[in-house]
Amino acid sequence: MVVPLALPVVDLAVYMADPTSAAAKAEAAKAADALKSYGALLVRDPRVPEGANGEFLDMMEQYFEQPLDAKMADVRPELNYQIGATPEFVEEPCCFRDPKCQKILEDLPAEDKPVQWTGADPKWRFFHRIGPVPTESKYPQLNTAPVVPAKFADKWLSVMDTYGQQLHDAVEMVAEVAAVGLGYADAKDFVNKAKFGPHLLAPTGSDLCRFNQLNTVFAGFHYDLNFLTIHGKSRYPGLHVWARNSGIKMSVAVPDGCLLVQAGKELEWLTGGAVLAGYHEVIVNEKTIEAAERAKAAGRSLWRVSSTLFYHIASDVVLKPTGPFDEPERNAAYPAVDCGEYVRKELELISLAEGSGKPSQ
Predict the structure, then answer these.
(1) I want to staple 218 with a disulfide (CB 3.0 to 4.6 A). Which of 11, 206, 247, 266 is the partner?
(2) Given phi > 0 = left and psi -120 to 50 = alpha, else beta, which region is 131?
(3) What contacts 167, CB < 8 A, 6 or more positions away?
(4) CA 189/CA 17 separation, integer angstroms
């Protein structure tokens, strides 16, 4: 059973107009409540034009439609796939190796369980760094220069950097608004910790020409390892989320003019579990098939592309409960760890880095 979810919509323009106003504080409280209740929210940001998402999706569809050898030239496994392309059937859902995730799966009612997956995800991904790189870091592999595909050399950096920066600025504002709503004395607490973070514009590409059967799993049940994830509207539905306050499997639709923001594990760590990283999956459902049939009839691309940006805490920042969540019980549950070390362990968990594959927490 999948229940439609109408997420709260936060208007960032209200906060940007006057952060001290009662209206801005109400938007901040709404954002914090949504993150604590659902692990997700919708936002409107007047700085992100709708046309930018369309231009970005157009280019990424063309990229993923390329022959295999052209895309493989952009793969960097020696950098744990944290820049450039990740081929299909490489990234695995974290639940393969995470006992905590497996316990959550076991406890879900049968009608709310995710679609069962059988192996690594049949999706491509491309990682493109957004924002300045730190001059010094203990984790240089997380802070490397971008890969520019040969066929798109004339426009790649312009499109990726422009849209990526727009998404970055929007989610950075969400981080500030959330800090206010969660009761932090310094509205910039999260933003300052994310300065020089390895933020990644991270579109996925899933081929609906090949993988178009009902309940095909493009991204198995998982959480995001970063701080906040922001998405533009996809041309194909298929996202399901599980809210912490219900455990019910829900579908999410992004209205025109809105961006979807999801809580990641780094935010869970800094709040000591007051906000939990949201579990979600991406599958082929009935609406995906209907959208693909319309696209095919119109001669449009059958690649399902997500316009996703992962907003990270800086690699050398120590993750631990902070601000109003700096309490003994939360500190015991979320022990201090360098963010870069935490990310390394999470990458092992999803088969993007070599190692033990043991969960970081």
Answers:
(1) 206
(2) left
(3) 48, 130, 201, 230, 232, 259, 307, 309
(4) 20
Do 204 and 306 touch, CB atoms closer than 8 A?
A: yes
What does the pLDDT look like over 271-316, one tens digit per residue?
A: 999 999 989 999 999 999 999 999 999 999 999 999 999 999 999 9
Distance between CA atoms of 257 and 342, rounded to whole angstroms? 34
CA distance 101 to 109: 15
Amino acid at 143: N
**Residue in the block written with tokens 């869970």:** 268
* E strands in 156-258: 200-201, 204-207, 217-222, 228-231, 239-242, 249-252
Under 8 Å CB-to-CB from 142, ≥6 apart: which residues?
82, 198, 315, 340, 343
Name residue 249's amino acid.
Answer: K
pTM score, whole prediction: 0.93
